[in-house]
Amino acid sequence: MSRIMTGARMVIEALRDQGVDTVFGYPGGAVLPIYDELFQQNDITHVLVRHEQGAVHMAEGYARSTGKPGVVLVTSGPGATNAVTGLTDALMDSIPLVVLSGQVPTFLIGTDGFQEADTVGITRPCTKHNWLVKDTAKLSETIHKAFHVATSGRPGPVLIDIPKDVQFAEDAYQGPKQIDPPRYQPVRKGDVTAITRLVELIEQAERPILYTGGGVINSGPGASQLLRELADATGIPVTSTLMGLGAYPASGRNWIGMLGMHGLYEANLAMHGCDLMVNIGARFDDRITGRIAEFSPGSVKAHIDIDPSSINKVIHVDIPIIGDVGHVLEDLLKIWKSRGRKVNTAALGKWWEQIEGWKSKNCLFYRGSDTIIKPQFALERLEALTKGRDRYVTTEVGQHQMWAAQFLHFDEPNRWMTSGGLGTMGYGLPASIGVQMAHPESLVINVAGDASWLMNMQEMGTAVQFRLPVKQFILNNERLGMVRQWQQLLHGERYSQSWSDSLPDFIKLAEAFGCKGAQVQDPKDLDDAIQQMIDYDGPFILDVLVEKHENCFPMIPSGKPHNEMLLGDAETQGAIQGAGAALV
Amino acid sequence: MNALNIQKGASSHSAYDLRDPNAQVEESHTLAVLVENEPGVLARVIGLFSGRGYNIDSLTVAEVDHTGHQSRITMVTSGTPAVIEQIKAQLGRIVPVHDVHDLTVEGPSVERELGLFKVRGQGDKRVEALRIAEIFRANVVDSTLESFVFELVGTPSKLDAFAELMRPLGLADLARTGVAALARGA
Ligand SMILES: Cc1ncc(C[n+]2csc(CCOP(=O)(O)OP(=O)(O)O)c2C)c(N)n1
Ligand SMILES: [Mg+2]
């Protein structure tokens, strides 16, 4: 029995059939028929954003915290072009999104019509796939296919461009089960021979390491569970990229911290010195590898990835395993157990000793202060006061992001959302709103920098309108801190344009938006301020005035190998303590 | 990891090192890319090459299966072995790409290209042009008192050689189709 309806109605039907409960969007001429249909139903909540970039980041926050695809609805022309940054962000970080854009009617396409843009052309390189639907008969099928493409294989954003006349025209609706199975079916099971070879290496390795990434989280909670089982059963140390934090718990026995440009000393040295590197759902990003030619020179490398193009793209690997992390880990554990659960216990003991030695460097050491809030201290207090709570954290981009990754600890996947691959300032506030929409009862905190936060601050209006009690924790150094740090270290201290001049009064700004704000400057008042932020029943902006010239360490300068790390305060710590002891 | 008998440093080279033209020689590969015949699919393939900095030396495309909506893109590309592998993987990742074949490594294949050559000239040069065309088994598809248009089918290098010989004899214009290629055998 076919059901005839308008294209606009089909959009709603299809979203409902795909289990969508929330759409982030902004109306305009080319999507009015869809907005008309939204108005006449109650199953799908529409979150009216203040800028389409915000909508896409919200959908990203929603997707990353739930594992479900995020859905966005924008109008043609400027609506679609405003979505481009978010699409690129989602593509880089493999976040499943379905973006629906309106388009001028088919008979106007190509005439430079009002608010016409070549949306599929513009978004082709920043989506996993996109479609221009010119016929209402194909619309419902295309939407179902879009959800399939966005969520299968390596996830990513997709876009469907829908001309206005296609929204008005009528045709038969097809449900998800009525369409032919899509041709796009990436492999999920890894090659058993390669997995067995990897098991053999794990059994003998003297200095193995698990280098995990966002792919573990994308593969679903089961994959994180299997990773834990593997690490705990074998005793192999685990490090993770920025994107993978939480897949293995920070409180876990084998956790040695994040790796990479601002990763921990012990994690980077372990990567450098290992003899077996097992990359699980990471992609050898340049923030991870440093200088390629000197990256982990003595190791045998295995790489588990669902995307064949990730294999040997940057680093040549010895054992490529193409498949879904969850499936591969399941097989790997099965094979390892069936062969007698062997590891090289003696060598592993020595390896851990070496790692403990590196840990004693205490690489996150910073000089405390009674008079000024150190950004690291602010995060330590935030961690202490929110630990154990049902907590989600988003971030903006800059020093505060790296400190958050170093000082906040995640014991579960899907709790940490940050813009990794693209490094998009302005991501965190809208992302926090998307997370809060999905988890209304949870504590959602955006760790922000003053400069990044301003980039999408208009979304505070969205938070207030939808009564989303997101906490904006701004580490205000009145600087484009990360830029300033690079200028200090690499550009002769010439601080070109890295001030945040004429910052708004964040308390007044909060009030202007109809929420609450506070400022804290004295380390003694910090705990109370954080507590006030947490307890407040509504969106809150906490303006934390922090040390302006703090640098984020450890740091591997671009193009340097892992063992040439800058350590900052941790380097001089011993000397100072020694001298101090001698004096008194 | 001596116990495993894998050479230390065996895997330290990366795609970046391999991209160094001095470190490894560039190879030319002919790829057959079978795609869903949908709007924008060629733009996706070309965008991939320009976006990631790969070379396209030749490209042809046409629908080969009307009912199955399949088109075949034949492309000649060059790069170090690692880059060629990456190109194939990246092509395979495009959603409407069904299959990628590297004809250069998958066994013997035939490659053909068609060229049209307009040669202007009179007297000896005109006679010489016609004589060479006969040797190459080119057809005359248009003729005036001062010009010929030759049609030549062959490998790209045969067309190159023909063009070189025609240049001093008055080669005025030239159109080439790009390479079409198929694996040999059943
Ligand atoms: C949209 C965008 N523009 C520029 C940059 C480059 N950038 C990276 S960090 C940074 C400074 C961020 O300043 P702030 O948000 O105050 O964070 P801080 O580093 O001070 O903690 C800039 C400009 C970027 N990542 N994103
Ligand atoms: Mg700042």
Automatic annotation (TrEMBL), chain A:
Cofactor: binding comment: Binds 1 thiamine pyrophosphate per subunit.
Keywords noted in UniProt: Amino-acid biosynthesis, Branched-chain amino acid biosynthesis, FAD, Flavoprotein, Magnesium, Metal-binding, Thiamine pyrophosphate, Transferase
Cofactor: thiamine diphosphate; Mg(2+)
Thiamine pyrophosphate enzyme TPP-binding domain mapped to chain residues: 397-544
InterPro entries the UniProt entry points to: Acetolactate_synth_lsu, AHAS_TPP, DHS-like_NAD/FAD-binding_dom, THDP-binding, Thiamin_PyroP_enz_cen_dom, Thiamin_PyroP_enz_TPP-bd_dom, TPP-bd_CS, TPP_enz
Example GO BP: isoleucine biosynthetic process
CDD domains membership: TPP_AHAS, TPP_PYR_POX_like
Stretches assigned to the Thiamine pyrophosphate enzyme N-terminal TPP-binding domain: 5-120
Catalytic activity reported: 2 pyruvate + H(+) = (2S)-2-acetolactate + CO2
Enzyme superclass (EC): transferase
Residue ranges of every copy of the Thiamine pyrophosphate enzyme central domain listed in the record: 195-332
GO cellular component: acetolactate synthase complex
E.C. numbers: 2.2.1.6
Molecular function GO terms recorded: acetolactate synthase activity; flavin adenine dinucleotide binding; magnesium ion binding; thiamine pyrophosphate binding
Pathway per the UniProt entry: Amino-acid biosynthesis; L-valine biosynthesis; L-valine from pyruvate: step 1/4; Amino-acid biosynthesis; L-isoleucine biosynthesis; L-isoleucine from 2-oxobutanoate: step 1/4
Pfam families associated with the record: TPP_enzyme_C (PF02775), TPP_enzyme_M (PF00205), TPP_enzyme_N (PF02776)
Family affiliation: Belongs to the TPP enzyme family.
Protein name: Acetolactate synthase
Species name: Paracoccus alkanivorans
Lineage start: Bacteria, Pseudomonadati, Pseudomonadota, Alphaproteobacteria, Rhodobacterales
Automatic annotation (TrEMBL), chain B:
Annotated pathway: Amino-acid biosynthesis; L-isoleucine biosynthesis; L-isoleucine from 2-oxobutanoate: step 1/4; Amino-acid biosynthesis; L-valine biosynthesis; L-valine from pyruvate: step 1/4
Catalytic activity: 2 pyruvate + H(+) = (2S)-2-acetolactate + CO2
EC number, as in UniProt: 2.2.1.6
Top-level taxon in the UniProt lineage: Bacteria
UniProt GO MF annotations: acetolactate synthase activity; acetolactate synthase regulator activity
Any Gene Ontology biological process: L-valine biosynthetic process
Region described as Disordered: spans on this chain: 1-21
InterPro entries hit by this protein: Acetalactate_synth_ssu, Acetolactate_synth/TF_NikR_C, Acetolactate_synth_ssu_C, ACT-like_dom_sf, ACT_dom, AHAS_ACT, AHAS_small-like_ACT
Keyword DNA damage: no
One GO cellular component term noted in the UniProt record for this chain: cytosol
UniProt keyword terms in alphabetical order: Amino-acid biosynthesis, Branched-chain amino acid biosynthesis, Transferase
Residue stretches of biased makeup (Polar residues): 1-14
Gene3D superfamilies linked to this entry: 3.30.70.260, ACT-like. Chain A, domain 2
Residue ranges constituting the ACT domain according to the UniProt record: 30-105
Subunit: Dimer of large and small chains.
UniProt xrefs under NCBIfam families: acolac_sm, PRK11895.1
Protein role: Catalyzes the conversion of 2 pyruvate molecules into acetolactate in the first common step of the biosynthetic pathway of the branched-amino acids such as leucine, isoleucine, and valine.
Recorded family membership: Belongs to the acetolactate synthase small subunit family.
Name by which UniProt lists this protein: Acetolactate synthase small subunit
